[in-house]
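Sequence in, structure out.
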Amino acid sequence: MKTIFNAILSAAFFFTSCNYGAKDSINSEIEEIEKSLITTIQIEGVPFEKHTLLDRMDHYNVPGLSIAVIKDRKLHWAKAYGLANDKIEVNTNTLFQAGSISKPLAALSVLKLVEDGILDLDEDVNSYLKNWEIPYNDFTKEQKVTLKRLLSHTSGLSGHGFPGYQRDESLPSLIQILNGGGNTPPIILDTIPGSMWRYSGGGYTLMEKIVEDVSGLNFEKVMDDKILKPLGMTKSTYEQPLPEVLALSASAAFDRKGEILDGKWNNYPEQAAAGLWTTPTELAKYCIEIQAILAGKEHGILSKATIEMMLTKSMNNWGLGPSLKGDNDSLMFGHGGKNEGFTTEMIAFAYKGDGVIIMTNADNGRPLINEIVLSISNYYGWKLDSPVMIELKQSDTEQLKKLAGKYRYNGEGGAVQAIEGEFVVEVKMENEGLKMIDKNGYFNTRLAQTGILEFTELDGGQVITFQQSDENNSYSFLYYDFFQFDKID
């Protein structure tokens, strides 16, 4: 795969300026960013080791990705890398599944209908629903589910996310999904609305039904007419399944081993929560519109007052759609996304006019996205994030040799359910330290020793704790504190 990546640097490269000097300058910026990736976990006292973007794509089994960078409320540059499928290269017009980035754009439909006087953010949502309602129970005695609470993940409704459906499967209706008739449990109200923050794709699915019920239109039609076209996002769609004419421009989805999913990708009838197909350049139009309205643009997609309300922090620093970070001039809005075989990120400064969108066609895209964001942030001085510094403990080579070997997941905790057969991880000695790998692509990382039996993944930052059994003097390790792997060799 590495030789393929090193041979491909997509020709699809968009510049906002036609001036050759400007192009040369932007080229220099991009080249510096591409060769300055570092892991988000660093060791105290050890110089940062820089990597190239293409090498890290190979390392993480990320076949393709696309980037758009915003500066001063304009698209500064966009570039694509790698493969969309076995033969076709990614370009800046290649469609990716946005995953949960679908949510903040979908939220605009509600805010638009509020401005049109059709919806009220603080009204009981049952007053808008047809053929389905939230049952009256002890939780609704005190507070009601409202659109404001649906958009800010404080409604009390269940349903974190959705796995999607293979392309040869029939898709359930919204009512079937809400009732648990699809491949996920029913969406239920199990706590007092407004009492806590809990991420709820189920809440956004209910919001989607409300939009359809009050408009009398399919959700993709509402989004196309009221949001996407007005934003100039003419290549984007919420339609599920993806129409064949657009499927020709779509990237396949790849698993953690870098292999294409059966059927190329999954379908998501939960359109508001996870159904958007788009590109980083298209998503940049959404970010730029929000920034422009805040800067005084008239006749935007929504009023400045509505956008300011959308970007007002609720519980857990969440707005009405996007997640929020920072304050005042440093306020940022955005969202991450994860569908089967796609991983994405969108970050934008509300008032400074900068931002970045990264979309990958890989299950294992998150650590690479983090490294790219860090490189871009460092280059432009955005101060989005800094590496986490850890103090390395002096290793005992003989102790490390005892930890080396093969470990099998014991099934506790319900992890990695999609893996067929046993899940075995190899821990091996490398450069007087330990490295962890497995054939399924979940692990491919060096371990930094931070305690006698405690290690940190240098790629993702997860803490791995080894334990020694008193009975047979063997070892096991815990991942995320509760997924246990027992040594078998």
